[in-house]
Structure prediction request, 866 residues.
Amino acid sequence: MNEHGGSALLTDHYELTMVQAALHSGAAARPSVFEMFARRLPEGRRYGVVGGTGRFLDLVERFRFRTEDLDFLSDNGVVDETTLRWLSEYRFSGNVWGYGEGEAYFPGSPILVVEGTFAESVLLETLALSVFNHDSAIASAASRMVVASGGRPLIEMGSRRTHEGAAVAAARAAYMAGFATSSNLEAGRSYGVPTGGTAAHAFTLLHDSERHAFTSQLDSLGRGTTLLVDTYDVERAVRTAVDLAGPELGAVRIDSGDLAATATRVRAQLDSLGASDTRIVVTGDLDELSIQALAVAPVDGYGVGTSLVTGSGAPTVSLVYKLVARARDLAAGTPLEPVAKRSVGKPSRGGRKWAMRRLDDKGIAIAEEVFPHVPEAAVNVRPLLRPLMADGEVIGRESVHEARERHRAVVAELPEQALRMSRGEAALPTVFH
Amino acid sequence: MNEHGGSALLTDHYELTMVQAALHSGAAARPSVFEMFARRLPEGRRYGVVGGTGRFLDLVERFRFRTEDLDFLSDNGVVDETTLRWLSEYRFSGNVWGYGEGEAYFPGSPILVVEGTFAESVLLETLALSVFNHDSAIASAASRMVVASGGRPLIEMGSRRTHEGAAVAAARAAYMAGFATSSNLEAGRSYGVPTGGTAAHAFTLLHDSERHAFTSQLDSLGRGTTLLVDTYDVERAVRTAVDLAGPELGAVRIDSGDLAATATRVRAQLDSLGASDTRIVVTGDLDELSIQALAVAPVDGYGVGTSLVTGSGAPTVSLVYKLVARARDLAAGTPLEPVAKRSVGKPSRGGRKWAMRRLDDKGIAIAEEVFPHVPEAAVNVRPLLRPLMADGEVIGRESVHEARERHRAVVAELPEQALRMSRGEAALPTVFH
Prediction:
């Protein structure tokens, strides 16, 4: 949102000039279908995760051209008077279906289907792509980290490494994909993501000594707090920490050095000091591969920053939003005709689509199936498109907690090879019927 | 900002718990200096570009804990009552200096210096890092693209590939670094970035034929518009375009295929049809290297999306915000003492710093010089820190246009090797005095 709370200018200039030209030609009102999909997964990834559905629905509800927006468009000659009048009354009135947030997706999966007039539907293109490309990139990276962590809790702490608004969305997407907590307070306020954190090196440096700093933190935050032990000398800090807090010390955090070796030494030291319930949290440039490599180390939690908020090498996931069908005229009952461009290397597949996930007898996913019509119900298939908006009203709103539950179930259903950290192909074939 | 316009919760949980514990220990009010710097440039980069200064100043002015923020913090037990009261009155009252927006930076350059009490200054850490890490990543990538383009105009069109709020900041940073225009309308409204755009493939597919689509666009947007010619067959589309618009056709856009070869063919075709003033704009997965490779092709403008908004391989630039000095007590006149952690691999350099750029007799930059005191004025050195805030008031506000002018001058001053596209080391040594 911009500072007056609207979302309509979070949009490419050309969406509005297309509306102008289509109003001029009369085609603006043609019934149309747009679909969002990815032609491929990011290099080496075995599955993608849909993120952003909930945020998109919130933003579509705020997608109105307000006076200050229209004044800007008018003053800068972006569109003509006819179009300004049309925009001033704009309100999406169509239907939207989508994969559930947290669902896995594969190349060609139609993760969003938007049905309305051309003009009202094309206007949502930029916003839809921004939200889903970002949030799905984060959710897809986060999901792999959760798999790699083998059940140990993950803490999202990447706010400082990404745009301040993207940080809130990233915290939400990471939680949805299974992270335990986030450092981002706005994600707590807006979405109910559990937040956490205790202290940084600056807090230790501020005080006259590490002992003074630890004493202050324990007095104020309690013995269950996490003390950061690598500002000066880890061994001395751990000794000081247990000396001051006793065995009830919640956790120590290690943010530098060889994390596996340091964690092993610190575990032995904590145990020898009687603090065997004190946990060890490691942070510092972790990604899914280093998390997996730490599986054998005595680590109780991972803090992940940069790699999470940058999608671990794939900060965007190349989702596109394409016109796949439109009616040739406006008369009631005119059939929608498939349309598709033939650009070199970027072909599209015309026609409205429906999708199911096929499972084997053990409930393991074996294929993504895409149909040009509503498929018949069958055993061992799970429909993937849910109704999200009907006649412009949001009907598919869910909390991030519901999306998180879906994601957990969806990952459990994926074949074993989908969950390998090594680079590979899409774990399921997409079958177009 | 969140939807009520505040920025204070765009912050890590631990900043607030540190404030709580420091209020408890009495150290919260110790005069302190924090500095923001990068230990290194992104792999292979020869210079970095400071981006985000203007946005940071705007956000600091809105950094207030409002009722809904305090309610969230209270309801979730983030901090205690004493801290809530302190936060409710929070307003940064210190001083800030920074490199000018658009300035080049190198490893160790102190691009932001924040002076205030520990508590008031540490609270700005997350927001400062979010803004500068994002905007500097985009500005740094954009600057290289501008160099690679050799004066041909660059169009920023990456909104759809990044978070919707990050998209606005990215458009601003790209314009600051020399891009000609952006597709992002909110960047136009908020920052005066020139916006542009005409039509996508969907517009052609909507109509009954490409000829029908082009006619509609030309009628509505005028002959100076840009027609997208690769929906079906480029040669046929160019013929149709000139047939309809005549030699006054503004431009054609090519978004797929071998851009150099296609542009060469289209140039010859346009010339043969008498449309020698019609420009050719190319788009489609361009980055600084492919832009440079197209230098020999008859291309009049480049549209850049994904690579720009993802920082062309470096979506964040590892800026950190570190406590470098603090007074040991609160008595007036107590000297600030340097502080620095000794974490393995992450050493920091204590003490407040000042920076100058040293130039040779021809005005070419030869070194980044960092001093532990205010350096004496001298010929052939340019001071780099500008006053941005004094006693909590913004005094260094600039428009993005002023930052753009600075960036242009700064790039002109860099040595030739800084502007090579190949991977290399930092183009200037950072000398610590």
User: Anything to note?
Assistant: The CA atoms of residues 38 and 137 of chain A lie 12 Å apart. Chain A has two domains: 13-138+314-432, 150-311. Chain A touches chain B through 112 residues (CB under 8 Å).
